[in-house]
Amino acid sequence: MEYFSGYEFIKLVQSFSNSFFDIFFKYITMLGDEIFYLIFIPIIYLCFNKVIGLNLITFYLVSSISNTYLKDFFYTLRPSPEKVRVLIEEDSYAFPSNHAQGAVVFWGYLLSEVKKKWLKIMLLIIISLVSLSRIYLGVHFPIDVFGGWIIGFLILIILLFLIEKYQVWEFLSNYNKKYFHNKGYFHYDYLIPILIIIIPLISFFIYPTYSTAQGFLLLIRHAALYVKSLEASILAFMSANFC
User: What residue stretches are annotated with the Phosphatidic acid phosphatase type 2/haloperoxidase domain (predicted)?
Assistant: First the structure.
């Protein structure tokens, strides 16, 4: 049991460490970093599929905010650098792993959308490697990663069910066209940055901790990516065949 809950498993994984794997996993773990999502989601939204982009925003927000609350609730410490190699710095609590949870939710949603087998395999590999990177880098115990997987899977299943059942974005689009857009009042695209700011702001006032404050500031930056001026700029690049 020690292998799955403590330092022994981390030491086992790190027994294969070398300079190549150190660099490799530092880059792999970035696929679960907030800055990656800040770049990747707008590309999907603006260059490929707006509905998938909107769903990715929703999945990311739900996973990120819920993980913040869960970390503060369980209040567990990360591995000690005195017992294992810790290759990067993290200042939040350990359980559940945000990278593992987010990988299951984010890449798992894309897995449900793609049709090609090789893409599905690639996405499963990304989920596995991002999760493994957290143990290799010495910032999570195995139980943190397993917990992130389970919670992430539950969030993924629930959100997939809700989106499929209620067709949220189709409803908003039709409602907007019927009552607002045709009259020149408002466009539902503006709801994206508004909601991205309001939801974390409400959560911060309900539960004011360092973690929620951090998340709030991050999501404000995320919202800025979706204002109309930025979209117009990127669409200009699209016309030049950059997307």
Answer: 51-160
